Amino acid sequence: MPTDVPEPSASSTAPSTPVNEGASQDPDDPAAATDPPTEPAPGPGATAPVTVTFSYWGYDAKSTSAIANGYADVVDAQGTCTLTLERNGVTVAVDRAALADARTTSCGELSINDPQLTSGTWDAKLSFSSPIHSGVSTLVEIVVP
Amino acid sequence: MTSRLRSDFLRVVASLSAAALTLGIAVAVTVAPLGAPRAAAANLAAFDPGNLVSDAVFFNGTDMSEADVQLFLNTKGAACKPSSSGIPCLKSYSQATQDRAADARCTRPYVGAPAEAAATIIAKVAQACGISARALLVMIQKEQGLVLGTGETLTARRYQIAMGFGCPDTAACDAQYYGFFNQVYRAAWQFKNYALNPTSYNHRAGAWNNVRFHPNAACGSSPVYIANQATAGLYNYTPYQPNGAALAAGYGSGDGCSSYGNRNFYSYFQDWFAAPAYETVGTIATWYRAGGAELLGPPTGNQVAVNGGYQQTFTRGIVSLTSSGVVTTIGGVNAGYVGTGAAWGPLGLATGAERWTAAGGWTQDFQNGTVYYGLSTGFSAALGSINTQYKQLGGPASSVGWALGMQRCTAGTCYQDFLRPSGAYASIISSDSTGAHIITNAIRSRWVASGTTSGLGAPFADEAVAADGKGSFARFTNNQREGIILWSASTGAQAFGGLFLDLWTVGGGVAGLGYPTMTEAATADGKGSYVEFRGTRDAIALWSAPTGAHAFGGGFYSYWKAAGGVRGLGYPTITESATPGVTGSYVDFTTGTRQASVYWSPTTGTHGLGGPVRDAWLAAGGLNTLGFPSTTEAATPDGRGAFVNFVRDKSLSSVVWSPTTGARAITGSVHTLWAAGGGLSGLGYPTSEAIATADGAGTITTFNGARDAVVVSSPTTGTHAFGGTFLDVWNRSGGVAGLGYPLTTEAAVPGATGSIVEFRNGGRTASALWSPSTGTHALGGPVRDAWLRTGGVTGLGFPTSTEAVTVDGGGAFVDFVRNGRTGTVLWSASTGAHSVGGPVRESWVRSGGVTGLGYPTTDETATAGGTGSFATFTRGGVEGIVLWSAPTGAHHFSGRSYTTWKAAGGVTAIGFPTADEAPVGTTGATRVPFTNGSWIVQSAASGSFVVPAQVQLAWTARGGATGSLGLPVSVATETGTTISQTFQGGVVTVAK
Q1: From the CB of residue A96, how many other CB atoms can be counted at a distance below 10 Å?
Q2: Which residues of B touch A29 (CB under 8 A)?
């Protein structure tokens, strides 16, 4: 989160003007708040909701597999990502242990090569779950040729 | 831009399709219009979200050296000030770093160090992990603004999370990645990790990726064809692209869905590194056009005003512009100059052209110093007064040689090392108070070993030859303490200072104490310090807090060492000094509890004394009275005490100490006598000083050896000793008021078993005599005269009593004995003193002694014919006599009998009495028989007459005095052939 450092008074003629304010949103640094947290706090006994985003998705003809990748907006080393495809009441899914990164948790590329994966347009979703966090992406479509 | 994106998208899809990969991305969000007008900003018109930086640039880990990074930080942070709480600028930041082993990501090990500058950390991480230092600098700026930060924007927190690693946009940071080094290393490592695992993380190079605009997913996303791994990594690290508003804002803020991380990465990288739109202006531009471009290549920065001039960096060097004009720095000189911080470092701007010197290297002048680049010594810079002095000494071509490295400073004192042509080292040391001065070789080595500027400090003057020409020296000052290093071939270079230096200087320097053989060091007991010297003799200077610093040498030094040094005699309280008024010298010492002195004179040598012995010596007058010690304090033969002998003008004395007697001085004639008498084995330990006698006419010294004894001295009687029973007798007599002063020392009596002391009190002489059988008794005056007349110990022998009053109170007497023969000397005022002895005395005793015959009026005297002896007596006007001869023994008679005997012609007439005068019956008469047969018969009534032998026989035959004849009443008369004598009862006539 302490990522982006805008310069309110920036100008192209003074590219090296020091920033006046750090961009940190770290709770320990109350002075910085460029990108405020967007997730609500979890309720008692519940996992905290987390945004899950596809970074890419599609059908890999070479491997005859549906593939997708994405991430959760949290650093959580205990999470698992699940790619789920659904079409006409048929559901196929694959899990992969997620990898904690600098400021997100990566699903890594998930791949489904399943006989049930017949031609057509499948609804795909990416979900993330851990003992602490859980979330599901918006749906995307994968066309199986 | 939208169309470009779209066409790129289609082109890539086509390409991917050809590769049998069909990625259908359903774009559910609005793509921001990239072609919107932009605020003043970096070159954002060329911003391509799919190609933020090339792999070749991003994965070049050797794009900047440490010096390059430092110079960059110096330049960017030229105006930076630390925060009010002391958080430093990045250019000045340093921290301890830890080792990191090489692995598949960072393929070179990182070797940690106790305090590494941020620039060093950045350059080393770049090299270890193969990530561009430029990219790391840009990330440090875009994450926490530390490159350009200043003042209160600098916080410990920003350094703690400098790269934002482990800091998600929606939660707190992960503490395990805290710390500047940790952040930089971990981020670089992760970028390599992305590259090694291209499908394990969010974004994939060579493919279309859906990239969000903002942490708020509702802000949407757009497809981006990520052209390379570096860009994929940047999106993995920060998964947002700038929206149109962000791109339009330059470095400023866009709208609620704007994010800035990857925009700023692009902008800073372009502005700082990728788009060198640098130019030359003014004088530098003129120079540049006139050939500078060929020399240094294109500029790598714009001209910067600094130090009253300008500086501009170029591909192959730096240009400085001052009143001296345009000056270039190139090659090794320039590399070193950059390493010192270029114009922002201590050298300032270059002011003179680089020059080759015949000594083998280059020199170049700057505002504040000169660079010396020796072929064998490399880059060095000498500054300020050190440089001035170096030049005055001749610079690299002189015996000083080439400067090494940079000067080092502590608390205003700086020094620089030099490598001399000889291979030895020199240093020039400078401070405001001392100026700059040089020291070389061994003196420099000692200065370094002593702690350089923190030790001896800065020299007052250049190293110089010592006064005697046998060595060299340099004097130093550090915080008002002065020090010196002295070198000679035999002693090497040694250092000392403070009070030692004062002492050495006052003592004549090398002509006095000479050269130190060691560097000032702590003493063995840790209570002080010392320096040893070698001049005309070995010497030492010792200091302790209570005593100060003092020096001594030669015999004193040898003596002190042999006596145990600081643990023996302790520390000197004075420096070796001449003894006043007399040829000699001395040093006083103290252990803190015991004082000691060591004295030397040409005749006595070096000897020490301490404690009570020294106190007694001082109390007795010390040097002025007892003189120099001629022996060192030593244990007495019996081990009970200690003693020191002294000599002054050939007069000997001693101080003798024992625990029971204390320390006493023995001097003059007392000492002579004491020594002659065997000293400690004779009279023994003195128990007093020589104290005045009661009458003030002399002195008395008491001793305790095998017995108590005294030495009594007076000018008229001399000095004599006696003890034991003699001392008892003397004391009982009243001492000097009694027997008086001794005339002799107690001595054996010749020819007899006994001893004698003679005394005099005024005109009266006395003798005290001892023998085993008689004990000790004293006699004096006429009694002693009489004893002497009678042959003394060979006459009357030894007294058996001390002179005593006679029973009648009329005189005095002393009894004697010799070989069993008893004698007596009797004295009365009227008779004087006379001796009687043997049978004569026995006869006298039979008579009743002084109440019998009374007091002798003569000594025992030989009779006229030598056949006997006699003594006469008197009592109450009555004369008497005791007569002795061998045949008769001794018998006495007195009064009228004695008168009659004398009138009759004595021994020659009627011979010796054959019995004591005895009463005749109850007649009241006495009679004395004599050897010729005569009797003297007397009574008060009848008178006293000689009764011739023939008459006596006839008279006795008729009953004697108690017969009819009674007592004689006339002298005997001779008539013809008869002798007649009248008695009370008739006349006796007998034939002759």
Answers
A1: 17
A2: 155, 157-158
Condensed to tens digits (0 to 9), the pLDDT of residues B46-66 reads 788 988 987 878 988 988 999
Q: Do B239 and A71 touch (CB under 8 A)?
A: yes
HSE on the CB side for B625, CA within 13 Å? 13
Task: Measure Cα distances from B545 to B289, B421, B528, B852, B862 in Å.
Answer: 73, 45, 7, 89, 89
Phi, psi dihedral angles at B528 (to 5 degrees): -165, -160
* Helix B133-144, helix B118-129: angle, nearest 10: 120
Residues 6+ apart with CB under 8 A from B205: B198, B226, B227, B228, B229, B231, B232
CB contact under 8 A, A108 and B199: yes
Question: How far apart are alpha carbons B479 and B477 in whole angstroms?
Answer: 7
Q: Is the pTM of this model over 0.80?
A: no
Which chain B residues are Cβ-neighbours of A58 within 8 angstroms? 21-25
Identity of residue B71: L
Cα distances from B696 to residues B692, B693, B699, B742, B867, in angstroms, run: 6, 5, 7, 15, 54
Q: How does DSSP classify residue B30?
A: P
Task: Collapse the DSSP code of B18 into the 3-class scheme (helix H, G, I; strand E, B; otherwise coil) and give the result.
Answer: helix
Determine the 3-state secondary structure of A82 from DSSP: strand
Instruction: Report the distance separating Cα A137 and Cα A51, nearest Å.
Output: 7
pLDDT at A8 over 60: no
Measure B544 CA to nearest chain A CA, in Å: 58
For B702: left if phi > 0, alpha if psi spans -120 to 50, otherwise beta; the answer is beta
**Tokens in use for B487?**
């070198």
- Burial class from Cβ neighbours inside 10 Å (0-12, 13-18, 19+) for residue B991 reads exposed
Count Cβ atoms within 10 A of the Cβ of residue B946 and give its class: 0-12 exposed, 13-18 middle, 19 or more buried.
buried
CB B456 within 8 A of CB B478: yes
- DSSP states of B870-934: EEEEEETTEEEEEEEETTTEEEEEEHHHHHHHHHHTHHHHH--BSS--EEETTTTEEEEEBTTS-
Asked if residue A29 has pLDDT above 50, the reply is no
State whether A38 and B250 contact (CB < 8 Å): no
**pLDDT tens-digit map of B777-799:** 999 888 999 899 888 888 889 99
Q: Are A125 and A84 in contact (CB under 8 A)?
A: yes
Phi first, then psi: give them for residue B160, nearest 5 degrees.
-65, -35
Tens-place pLDDT, residues B389-444: 999 999 999 999 999 999 998 888 999 999 999 999 999 999 999 999 999 999 99
> DSSP letters along B86-134, please?
-PPPGGG-EE----B---SSS-S-B---SSEEHHHHHHHHHHHHT--HH
Q: Do B236 and A23 touch (CB under 8 A)?
A: no
Name residue A19's amino acid. V
Alpha helix segments (H runs only) across B161-201: 180-196
- Size (chain A), residues: 145
pLDDT, chain B, mean: 89
Classify B818 as helix, strand or coil.
strand
Q: State whether residue B208 sits within 8 Å of chain A by CB.
A: yes
Distance (Å) from the C-alpha of residue B477 to the closest C-alpha of chain A? 46
Cα–Cα distance measured from residue B203 to residue B185, given in angstroms and rounded to the nearest whole number: 22
pLDDT at residue B926 greater than cutoff 50: yes
B254 CB-near residues (< 8 Å, 6+ apart)? A6, B242, B243, B244, B245, B246, B247, B248, B260
Reduced to 3 states, what is the DSSP secondary structure of residue B743?
A: coil
> Could A7 and B208 be called an inter-chain contact, meaning their C-beta atoms sit closer than 8 Å?
no
Q: B251 vs A17: CB contact, 8 Å cut-off?
A: yes
Treating both helix axes as pointing N-terminal to C-terminal, what angle do B133-144 and B261-269 enclose, rounded to 10 degrees?
130
**Locus of tokens 């003014």:** B282
